[in-house]
Structure formats: C-alpha cells, structure tokens
Amino acid sequence: NRNISLYDALGGEAAIRSIVECFYPKVQNHPLLGPIFPEDINPVMEKQFLFLTQFFGGPHLYSEQHGHPMMRARHLPFPITPERAEAWLSCMREALKEAGIDSELAAFALERLSGPAHHFVNTTE
Ligand code: HEM
C-alpha cells in the first residue's frame, strides 16, 4: 500500500520504542553528544518516543502532551554545531540498524531526519 505511513512501515509503537532505546546509549557514549545531554536520559527518551511517533506519521502524541513541537526553538539552549548534527544522524543510523529496521526503510527514515537535524544547527563552535 503506497499510503502506509513511515510509522506503520517501521513497525509502529514497538519499533519506535526499540529505535529510541538503541539510540540514546549511543548518544550518551558519543564524545560530542554525551556532554550536552542530561544524566537522567529517561525523560528525553520518552519525549523522543512521542515525537518520532508523530514525525513518522503516527498518532500526534508529542503535541497532545507537550504542545506545538517548535523543535528548533526547543534546541536553542544547546550548542548544536554541524559536527553534532552529523553525529546525531550517525547515532540514529546505527540505532536503526541495531533495531533491525530494513536498510531501505532506514535510509528513507534517515533522509527524513536529515533536514531537521541540519536545520537545528545554531552555532559553529
Ligand atoms: C531534546 C540535542 C537533533 C528531537 C534534545 C536535547 C538535546 C538535544 C541536548 C535536550 C535534552 C534535555 O532535555 O536536556 C540534539 C542534537 C541534535 C538534535 C545535538 C543534532 C542535530 C534532533 C532531531 C530531532 C530531535 C533531528 C527530531 C527530529 C528532540 C526531541 C527532544 C530533544 C523530541 C525533546 C524536546 C522536549 O524537551 O520536549 N535534543 N538534538 N533532536 N530533541 Fe534533539
């Protein structure tokens, strides 16, 4: 079906949970990313689960709980360099693989995340 959402194609709620659970340990271990994230990553993981669900075309869970995403604005307190955007995307690439997402689908999901990741860059240092 051509009209299936990316959310459904990925595998719905269980898949998004799994991607998020694979992703944050990589973020926390990354030398450029770990230091800008809080020690207690659980609230971030929960918000990311809500957001990616919505971003990939599933139920609008993030907006229901947290209002308008305004994701670039929400990232302004953190120094997001071009290198950090690439690092984020590379952790996500690994997480999609680890979560067992089909490689073509993973490439498509990464493509969708690449625009926002680069758009969130707010400093060069
Ligand atoms: C929150 C970093 C890209 C989605 C955060 C936080 C940091 C961060 C430091 C805040 C953690 C805290 O609460 O203290 C980054 C970096 C990125 C990036 C370095 C590189 C470009 C993205 C992308 C998405 C995303 C591409 C999704 C398309 C989120 C969400 C939150 C968040 C949903 C939680 C927002 C909230 O507080 O409600 N990010 N992020 N981020 N990020 Fe990112």
From TrEMBL:
It comes from the Bacteria. The keyword Kinase does not apply. Keywords: Heme, Iron, Metal-binding, Transport. The keyword Protease does not apply. Heme binds at H118. Its cofactor is heme. This is Globin. It holds the Pfam family Bac_globin. InterPro entries: GlbO/GLB3-like, Globin-like_sf, Globin/Proto, Globin_bac-like_CS, Hemoglobin_trunc. Gene3D superfamilies: Globins (1.10.490.10). Belongs to the truncated hemoglobin family. Group II subfamily. GO terms for molecular function: heme binding; metal ion binding; oxygen binding; oxygen carrier activity.
